[in-house]
């Protein structure tokens, strides 16, 4: 079983990485393989709605870290997305990445477990948490939760290590996520994935 972890911070050794490392410790204990992909320090442009991914390519027209990560996303059982809060939102580089990753890939994401981890000095955590969870919820991905909304506080590099409750929240999240992934793995063998219906897009007017 494998978890793909996206670090949306531009600092590969910053607070977001430290929070994600706290989760990795638990994944190791649970026998779940994990890999961190650093996205926040990359040059990732936004979606231009060219629709090439839908009409001819089945991947993004911009051949960068999005397409590199798509294969890893397809193969993983769970996806963790971590971000620092910037102006009450996730890092915009991460949002460009997630928008293109989720939109350009057609493989079935149903029952891959999603979890978000949000890092901030002080404010904007809940809004950012909601923002990230929306990518999972529109994709048939169950969302793992913790003892609190998945957040941890710190400003300068390393300060999150002083947030005892935040660290515990990350550990509990990883434990709950591991449990969910194992249950879904067994459930898939026993029951298979839920039946799919053809998607009816009505755009509200027709
Ligand atoms: C451009 C920018 C905007 C920020 N906006 C917020 C904010 O809205 N709320 C907050 O609590 N912290 C804000 N911060 C602080 C970061 O979220 C915080 O320092 C975080 O620990 C950085 O994580 P990192 O070390 O992984 O990059 C901001 C930082 C930057 C650089």
Structure characteristics:
alpha/beta, about 40% helix, binds flavin mononucleotide
Write the layout of secondary structure elements.
Elements: E1 2-7, H1 15-29, E2 33-38, H2 52-57, H3 65-75, E3 78-86, E4 89-90, H4 92-104, E5 113-120, H5 125-137, E6 151-153, H6 164-191
Helix pairs in contact: 1-6, 3-4
The structure holds flavin mononucleotide.
Flavin mononucleotide is lined by residues 9, 11, 14-16, 84-88, 119-124, 154-155, 157.
Structural overview:
By secondary structure, the chain is of the alpha/beta class. 42% of the residues lie in helices and 17% in strands. Strands 1, 2, 3, 4, 5 and 6 form a six-stranded mixed beta sheet that branches. The relative contact order is 0.18. It contains six helices and six strands, in the order E-H-E-H-H-E-E-H-E-H-E-H. Bound molecules: flavin mononucleotide. Flavin mononucleotide is lined by residues 9, 11, 14-16, 84-88, 119-124, 154-155, 157. The site of flavin mononucleotide has 19 residues, from helix 1, strand 3 and strand 5.
Radius of gyration: 17 Å
The total strand number stands at 6
For the record, give the distance between the C-alpha atoms at the N and C termini, rounded to a whole number.
42 Å
User: Segments where pLDDT lies below 50 for 5+ residues?
Assistant: none
Treating each run of at least 4 consecutive H or I residues as one helix, how many helices?
Answer: 6
What characterizes the major β-sheet? 6 strands, mixed
Mean pLDDT: 97
> What percent of residues adopt helix (DSSP H or I)?
40-55%
Strand content: 15-25%
Are any ligands bound, and if so which? flavin mononucleotide
The H/E string reads: EHEHHEEHEHEH
């Amino acid at each position: 079983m494998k978890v793909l972890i996206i670090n949306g911070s531009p600092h590969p050794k910053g607070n977001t990485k430290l929070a994600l490392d706290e989760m990795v410790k638990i994944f190791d204990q649970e026998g779940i393989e994990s890999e961190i992909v650093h996205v926040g320090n990359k040059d990732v442009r936004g979606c231009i709605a060219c629709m090439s991914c839908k009409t001819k390519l089945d991947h993004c027209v911009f051949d960068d870290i999005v397409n590199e990560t798509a294969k890893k996303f397809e193969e993983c059982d769970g996806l963790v997305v971590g971000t620092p809060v910037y102006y009450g939102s996730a890092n915009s580089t991460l949002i460009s990445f997630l928008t293109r990753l989720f939109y350009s890939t057609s493989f079935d994401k149903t029952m891959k477990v999603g979890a978000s981890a949000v890092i901030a000095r002080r404010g904007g955590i809940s809004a950012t948490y909601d923002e990230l969870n929306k990518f999972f919820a529109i994709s048939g991905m169950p969302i793992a939760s913790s003892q609190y909304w998945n957040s941890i506080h710190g400003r300068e590099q390393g300060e999150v290590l002083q947030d005892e409750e935040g660290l515990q929240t990350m550990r509990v999240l990883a434990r709950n996520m591991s449990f969910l992934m194992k249950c879904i793995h067994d459930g898939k063998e026993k029951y298979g994935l839920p039946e799919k219906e053809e998607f009816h897009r009505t755009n509200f007017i027709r």
